[in-house]
Structures are given as C-alpha cells and as structure tokens.
Specification:
four-stranded antiparallel beta sheet, Alpha-Beta Plaits, alpha/beta, Rossmann fold, seven-stranded mixed beta sheet, 9 helices
C-alpha cells in the first residue's frame, strides 16, 4: 500500500524522520522539482507499507505526531505491473542534437537529417534522459568520422547504437559486466537494424577486446573509470579520442589525473546540469 503524507515544506524533515521511526522502511520526498508535484509550499512524503500493517502504522504515526501539523494522507494500492511500467509515461521522444530517442511503444516520423534511436531500456541504464548520456550523444553527433569505436559499460546500448548510425561505415565493440544489460542492448540493436557485423556485444574483460579505436565512450562512475584508465588509454588509436562521462563536476579532478598519468591529455570539458564530459586525446 502506498501512503502519501502531504505536509508543510518546513516540516518535511521532521515528518520524514517520524515516519521512519514508526516503521517506514524508507521515505520518498516529492516537491516542486519532481514529476508528481504537491501544492505550493508543501511536500509529499511517500512510504510503502504491507497492506495488513497499514492501520497499525497510521495509529502509531498519529500518536507520535502530537503537536505537529496534521498532514493530508492519501492511500492507494500499488501492484508490480504499475511499478514496472509507471516510468514509461514520462519517456517520450526526445531530441539530442540530430538524434531523436524514441521509446519502443511510441510512433515517430523523423524530420530530414534526424537519426532515430528506437530504444527500450528495459532492465538497463540509458534512456538518453540523463545529462551524462546527452553529453555523449552530442559528442558523437559532432564528430564527423570514425572507423572503429568502443562503448565501455554499454548499458542499454544507446551510445554504441548511436555511433553505428552516425558513422555507417564504422565497426564497434560494446561491453558491459552485466549480462542482463547485454541482453537488453542486443534487443535494442536488433530494433535499430544494427547487426552483429556492425557492433560486437560482449561481457569480455576490457583487456580481451581486440584492436584500437578512434572513439572510446565510457559513461560510468569515477570509481570505475579510474581503475581502467591504463587499459582504456591502451585501446586508443593514434589521433583518437576518449569521451568519459558519468562524472559530477567536483569529482572530475582525480579522473583527469588518472588519465593524464597514463599519457592522455585533456582536450575539452563540457558541463551540463552539474555533470561533466571529459574529452581526452
């Protein structure tokens, strides 16, 4: 059962602490910055309680909240299908440079010059909605030529598929340590007409990937990017570029230092919504 407590904004922290103290396993806060917005000056605090425990939980909360402003409380049943599919209503066709990311359940007629990416992220990261992915897609869009590319930590496959469509003559490798991500990526590749002769998908270790690459894309957290700096740098072809994303601006210096230590040079930094794309040569 979903319970939503709508409280004055200045009481949100106190109410969230009380809900946890009385048995909520966690609290989701919804405010003016979220998709489900409460009334002005108020915050929604959402908790999930087993149906047979709801009445007892609410009784404990009421007793513990003496002296606090009374919240508006709404309850509704939630089922597994809703959990799995609710996010889809917020995933609509979205342009990023010349790319247009179209979810598999939508129909879209591309305009001249647009490159459509038909995508169903399924169980893997990568809808194109996050700044880190958008930064990478714009970098792919702006680069004119590429013979070989590598997508390290490919997730849903969005970057490798974009690269294959942007550079029709190029060949690529894409890998992820998560076998389920590779399964999702293969489904998306087939949906986009990107066959195995264009991109090889694998869970191989980075060291096992063959050859060198003109473009290396890695949209992963710094704690993963730093340990693989030497291996990624060794895969860069002469004159090639490494594009690193998944990095908050304040977390960039140690990533830059790690790649400079293995012979890379910082060419450019691009920032969006507090995230940075590092371009290294």
């Amino acid at each position: 059962m979903e319970l939503k407590f709508e409280v004055p904004s200045e009481w949100a922290e106190a109410w969230a602490a009380l809900l946890v103290e009385e048995g909520a396993p966690g609290v989701e806060e919804r405010d003016a910055a979220t998709l489900d917005k409460p009334a002005a000056g108020r915050v929604g605090l959402v908790v999930w309680i087993a149906p047979d425990e709801v009445d007892a939980f609410l009784a404990r909360v009421k007793a513990a909240a003496a002296g606090m402003p009374e919240p508006d409380v709404a309850r509704r049943d939630r089922d597994e299908d809703e959990w799995r599919d609710a996010w889809k209503k917020h995933f609509t066709p979205r342009p990023v440079g010349r790319f247009v990311i179209v979810p598999s359940w939508e129909k879209y007629e591309p305009k001249p010059g647009e490159i459509v990416l038909d995508l169903d992220p399924g169980r893997a990261f990568g809808t194109g909605g996050h700044a880190t992915t958008r930064l990478c897609l714009r970098a792919i869009d702006e680069r004119e030529t590429c013979a070989r590319f590598l997508d390290a930590g490919c997730g849903s496959g969005i970057l490798a598929i974009a690269a294959a469509k942007r550079w029709p003559e190029a060949r690529g490798e894409a890998y992820d340590v998560d076998r389920e991500a590779i399964e999702v990526a293969l489904e998306n590749a087939e949906r986009n007409g990107v066959g195995p002769e264009r991109v090889r998908w694998s869970t191989d270790a980075l060291a096992q990937l063959r050859g060198e690459f003109d473009v290396i894309l890695a949209n992963i957290q710094p704690e993963v990017l730093i340990p693989i700096a030497e291996e990624l740098a060794a895969k860069r072809a002469a004159g090639g570029r490494i594009y690193l994303s998944g990095i908050l601006v304040e977390a960039a210096p140690p990533v830059i230092a790690a790649y400079e230590a293995v012979g890379c040079a910082l060419v450019e930094q691009r920032v969006e919504d507090g995230w940075v794309l590092l371009v290294l040569g």
